[in-house]
Specification:
Layout: H1 2-21, H2 23-47, H3 59-63, E1 67-75, E2 80-85, H4 92-96, E3 105-109, E4 112-114, H5 116-125, E5 131-140, E6 143-152, E7 156-159, H6 160-166, E8 170-172, H7 183-201, H8 212-222, H9 224-241
Parallel strand pairs: 3-6
Antiparallel strand pairs: 1-2, 1-5, 2-3, 4-8, 5-6, 6-7
Length: about 240
């Protein structure tokens, strides 16, 4: 029994000697762990922060094309007004809620020039308070240029940028925020062009061709001789009535 105690004491003494000899190393390790913990905490705080303005979103989020979740509030001619829904982490989220401000993000459909009919379609298709996902592509003033996704069923989603073009409710445009010569720019731009081409081939929306009779009627009504004749007939009727 005494031998076991002496062995344990000897082992403890050696451990203490090693710790004394490597005290600086242990301090460095503890400092490194503390710094790593702070970095993880800082990253968690940023990921769980509620963004109420486009300027609140870190530059690296935009550069890395981070996908965010939000709740739709309004649809206007300027874009979608969305309330950001941050990632929820116990303890951190409960603390942040106490000082988070209120505000909505202005989200625009990147690479799409909406027609008036496109805005009307969005107002019919999307529901108030509906959850959407928006992938950051660029930021211009107070607006975010994004690919906007909505869930269709449990496993399917629909890209509103492509669907608008597929229905002939808008035209392709330059994707603001992405470098014109970047691989991602052309990857997304090709997707949008393919969607627009489908509407063009099917004569949908703004690409719908007028019928032959409609074109003839428009040409006749716009003819100067016909317009002059109408004016003469109108003058003649008014003269007879007098």
């Amino acid at each position: 029994m005494a031998e076991r105690r002496s062995g344990a004491a000897e082992g403890l003494a050696r451990l203490s000697e090693w710790a004394d000899a490597h005290l600086s190393l242990l301090r460095s390790l503890s400092t490194g762990m503390a710094v790593a913990g702070l970095l993880v905490l800082a990253r968690s705080v940023r990921m769980t922060s509620k963004f109420t303005s486009a300027l609140d979103i870190p530059v690296e989020f935009v550069e890395k094309n981070v996908k965010l979740r939000g709740k739709l509030h309004h649809i206007t001619e300027k874009g979608l007004e969305v309330e950001h829904i941050p990632i929820s982490i116990p303890f951190i989220t409960s603390i942040q809620r106490k000082w988070q401000s209120k505000g909505l993000l202005l989200v625009r459909l990147a690479g799409v020039e909406l027609a008036p009919s496109g805005t009307a379609w969005l107002q019919q298709e999307l529901k108030p308070k509906q959850t959407i996902w928006f992938q950051l592509l660029g930021r211009e003033d107070l607006a975010l240029e994004c690919l906007v996704l909505v869930n269709k069923g449990r496993f399917l989603s629909m890209c509103l940028n492509e669907e608008i073009l597929r229905q002939g409710l808008g035209r392709t445009a330059r994707i603001e925020g992405l470098h014109h010569d970047s691989r991602m720019y052309w990857k997304i731009h090709k997707r949008l062009l393919r969607a627009e081409l489908k509407a063009l081939k099917k004569n949908k929306g703004i690409w719908k061709e007028e019928s032959y009779s409609e074109r003839i009627r428009d040409r006749i009504s716009n003819n100067k001789f016909v317009q002059t004749l109408k004016q003469f007939v109108s003058w003649l009727r008014s003269s007879i009535q007098r």
